[in-house]
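BUG: 3D viewer hangs when loading the predicted structure for this chain

Environment: internal workstation, default settings.
Expected: structure renders.
Actual: progress bar stalls at 90%.

Input used:
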Amino acid sequence: MRQQAWQGLKWWVSGGVLLALAGAVGLARQSLDEQRALFETDARIVHRLLSQQVVQHDAILATLALLQPAPLDSPTTSPEQRLPALYPQILAVQRRDPDQAWPDAQLTRAEAASHVQRRAALGATNLANGRYQLVLSATPTSYALDLDMRAMVPWTEWPMEPQSSPVRVVLEQAGERYVIQPGAQASQTGWHWEARKPLASESQSFDVVSTLTVGPGQLPWTRMLAWALIVAALLTALRHLQRQRAARRRAEELLRLGQVARLNTLGELAAGMAHELNQPLTAVLANTQAAQRLLDDEPPELATARGAMAQAVAQARRAAEVVGRLRRAVERPDASGSLQAVNLNEAVKRALYLLEPECQRRGVTPVLDGADAVTVQADAVALDQIVHNLIFNALQALEQVPPAQRSLTLTLGAHDGRGELLVADSGPGIAPEVLPRLFEPFFSTRDGGLGLGLSLCETLANGMGGSLGAANRALGGAVFSLKLPLSTGDRS
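Structure tokens produced before the viewer hung:
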């Protein structure tokens, strides 16, 4: 029985763990999806903002090429020299007028590439220090911008906090890398996401690479723990409700058995009373009849005495008739008409289920042994009452020994056309002087007992064509044996 309870608890715990894990995985997946969606949105915004900046550089160079340049020896300052004041990312503006040369070879090569490609081209790049040059070949004057990549970032519109955001943002070009936002160090474990996209300018061939690593510590553990606690609370409540329902069903079944037992006990009590009263009434009848005969032999006038004795005889006969009517009224009808095929194993399991609280209270774990299916010919209610009574009596006997020595074994079998149930306990056993009178009506060894339980069980067993016996075990304790005819289909 404890094993069944443990199996049931194990299923509840397993189901709870699976439900909690499923919910936790769902919450983790939802959190990861949200973080990934936010990362992808931020990466798109970063790419758009940086693309706007590099496109602006192309536009500035194109505008300079369209302007009429001032001579180098003019006292008027060239307009391009005012650009660094307007655009903080422009460190300097260089120009090459006709018949002049660039101060370094990289600008010369960049101008040549720009002339062939008919667009701006990269000059010297130093991504480690966040610097690069952009050159546009034009007639008559070519221009070059010295750009600061750090100042190029529009921080006022930046979608993340640069110092605390876990997202890492870098610009890459030809194996070089400039870190715009450091982000978090990549973890060895977790979920890694990367967004790589070139800037929207062919002249500035930089890739914007955004990466994010979400480690186990960034999962929503608080919500996952709260979900697990909610699941545990709900399952505990459901388990409690289930146990309450089982206890209510058990109480209703015990009440039904108790009502049947009380009715049968009342019949047994009435039959016993009729039996006990019939004997003295018979003696009174015999004595009064003898007295009447003696009085009839005497010649004196004893008419009054004879009349009185005749009335006594009439009253005694009347009392005997009343007792007879009472006995016939409470006598149980023939049970042979209600006999049917009943699974003895199921009857034992029903009794163990009803008596589970009593077993737990006494620390007894019943052991069910023997055949798996024994079908007998019996009245189902009467069989339930007998089995219940035998097991409950065994539990009461086990109260007289220490808990460590308590054992209860129920053995099922079939022999010689009869199904048999043995109820063996490790209690103190049955005293030799008590054993012959164990099934007598009104005989009890317990204080306050009516002595009708075992008598009623024997009567019910006999009424179904079976028998009930008791004996002491060799190793201590008592064993009760219930034998009933096997169902017709199960007889060998």
